[in-house]
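Limitations
The structure tokens in this dataset are predictions for the assembled complex, not deposited experimental models. Users should treat interface geometry with appropriate caution, especially where small molecules or nucleic acid strands are included. An illustrative entry is reproduced here so readers can see what is and is not provided.
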Amino acid sequence: MNTHELEQLLMQQPVSLLHRLARGRISRHFRSGKRKLVDLLLQASAENRPGLESDLQTLIEERAHRPQPAHIEKTRSAQARPRPAPTAASRPHKTDDHSHHEPPVSLHEWLSGIGVPPPQPFIPDAWQVDALAKLAETDVVVSVPTGSGKTYVAIEATKRAIQENRTVIYTSPLKALSNTKFTEFSRVFGPGQVGILTGDRREHSQAPLLIMTTEILRNLLYDAAGGEIDVRLDTLGLVIMDESQYLADPERGVVWEETLIFCPSQARLLLLSASIGNPQDIADWLTAIRPTPCSLIRHTKRSVPLRAGYLHPNEKLTPLFRTAGIPYGQPHLLHPEAKRLFMEYEEETGPSRSR
Amino acid sequence: MPPSIHPVDLVATLRQRNLTPAIIFLTSRRACDEAMQSFERSQVTLPKAQQEQIARVLAQVTEQFPSIAEHPLIETVQRIGVAAHHAGHLPSWKIAVEELMRTGSLDAVFATTTLAAGVDFPARTVVVTQSSIRKARDFTDLTASEIQQLAGRAGRRGKDLVGFAVITPSPYIDLTVLTKGLTGQPEAIHSQFVISYPMVLNLLKAHPREQIQSILAKSFAQFQLNQRTAVLETKLDSLRAEMEPFGPRVCSDWITQWQVFEQARKRKKPRSPFARQESPDVAARLHFLTPGRVVGVTRGRGIILRQYRSKGQHAPMVTLLREGGSLNECPASIVTQVFDRTFDCEETSVYPWCTPQTLEQLTHHLTDLPPRLPILPILTHQHEEAPIDSSIIQTLGDFACPTCPSRQACQRDFPRASRVRQEIQRHIKSIQALQTSLWHRFQERIDVLERFGYLNANAQLTADGEWARLIRIDHSLLITELIRAEAFGAIDPPLLAAVMASIAHDDDRPGSFPRGSAGLVTLLFQVRKLAESLTPHEAPPMLRADVAALTERWVSDQTLTWIGLARLTTMAEGDMFRLFARTIEFLSQLKTLKATHPSLAESADHAIAAMRRGVLEELP
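Predicted assembly:
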């Protein structure tokens, strides 16, 4: 493409695309008009024409793949300045929502239903049963919202492994959590059945359930690989890793990876994680590197429903969203009262807002 | 209007709406403590039954952790049923608060967002007052995962029918961040694989170098890189398909052929200095602008001292001696008239381009010139085609292109074909980079370890490498180098603990601390020097002398109580506990060097034993 062709091509593009193209190439590009912008782009890219061309191509392709933005552009400009009130034609889904949830939820409605559920025999959720069933055959990654009952799965899985005379290692990211779990599991399994390992201390290190931080397990695995076998890794039947979303921790995430790579193949893996965006990736990864396949238990619904509210500094409480529950995927469905109050707040505190 | 709701009113509102127990997330430890203080003045007291329940639970926890018996906050907590829970507290106190929440004895807990993952207790309601948190000195918006992690604490299974997440504005809030976070999908996680020195040593201990690449390939990092590779490969496939019509023509590699031909042809275009297109009259005058020539410019007259071409544009330029004796560098186009008069000019190769005598003479001549001088008539040729350089004609003759039957097709397709080909090469290169980046990083580490003598030329562990691989903590290179430099020769346990504490501590919270001993100051100076010399290979630790002094005091003075130590410094108890716990962790790594460094291991063992007393004995 020579300069002239490129110039013509640039002139054919909408200004918005040119501005996107100018990002990082031209400072204060938003000040220039189209003609000027094209000139500046050509000047600025004199050194790296191919770079400009390829970026231009991608932007054009992107535009082409978007569902008819050009059409909306046209209708908007055709409607010109005093736009008629109903924009139904261009934005059908939003109006739909409005008609759907006509009156926003009232505070009374929102607050109703607080209370303690009647005591009932504990029945595990379907996903919990499913996770335990899958664990008999495969490794399992569990990704569920906070407070859904991951610990139940850990306890049941441990019970089964202990019955089969196999050792269980439970790792947590923080020493503080290890201590909490140590107390909690000691209550469930009996004090002699649970051990804890830290850098310099071991309590009940012969117990069938060992609690430790992930770093300690990683060190054990390295020792085993280096020839100094320390813990009964050959009888190890199950490794439970709590809070596995730490895999993405900038400083310590690598420890989770090392542990998972070197985890003995005869041991089952149970990864417990809070909700993350790509649990399937982790399951696929483990399937790829370990002899046993890995199943994913994903569950997004909370066992106790959640409602969101807004509390104004003057102690006025309103629902945050138009619906009682949380409208997933629709952050714009704010309750009009909450919206009004927050605008008021912003206006009053606005000028002094600083970090 | 106040910038945010007062904590006492907040708790009162929650109580009134039956939204307790609640966890209230505040921006900082200080905010939590201040919220607690504001309750001290309030008149609210709990009913007797609840007060007794709190006392009962606390008594139970105290049995296990005697250190909390005298905690200054017990009274307030018991009276008002509200507590704070943050990293500045001792773990045992945090356990007590968690236990109180679990038994439902408290109405509210003020907690910091920074340790949301460490808050392992649910409530009916979660109150969020901020939309960003401080990460590494900077405020960043909370991610959807983090917001859901916070909100997720609301609603206790089996105890609540519904949970509530209440947002209350504070100066640190952006409502859209929170609403998007509440309604959005949690973010995908990405591998943070870093290759550390101990990792290299431990892997090479167990596996030969040839196997390492296949082990690295098993990492989640490589898995995600492969995902990116896959995307690139599909793109590459489509590019290859796009390349299809541009297969071999008359010549098999017609794109390169045409490219070279183009270049050769373009070289014919004025690249050489004299082929530059000047306006005809300037070009015609150029021959006359020789040193010593008198010329007329727009204002006044001058004598040419030199003619040359500008560096960048190859524009014809002259150095002009102006009336008044000034020397100007100006474009040749400035010359409007060429006079029929020249003076002798003795040229030199440097400024002022002629000998000083000549310059003086010329300046004189210039002032003495008569007002009218004969003008030299110059014929301007109308645009004469510059003859093509014969060498280029020869090169062009080597190309078959001008007469080739596919010439037109080549000319038409070349721009697109060459672009696609470039893209293909770029993609192939990025795919290669993605596939080998981990291994490259590993090899860089091998090189460093080899230079320091932990590995031999075959990437096998040397005697030093054998023990160095047991140090599997941050700043491992610094620690192993210190050991090799015999900095810890026959070191006292307090000094060893102090140095380890300064290496282990990575928090820059300021405060006041006791002073260290002279021995510690000298040793730390040496450690700092070594750490600086290692900077290219390992980021240096903060090496704070104040936390080292605190640790030294705790280890050397066995009669010092925890409370006594806390009085020596403004450091929060929780931070002190974490500092010592991390120091013990580092020391216990030194303890594993029993076989090769018995005296050091023994010293580390003594230091651990000396540190483990009082509060530090309560938890494993």
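Some entries come with short summary sentences. For this one: Chain A touches chain B through 97 residues (CB under 8 Å).
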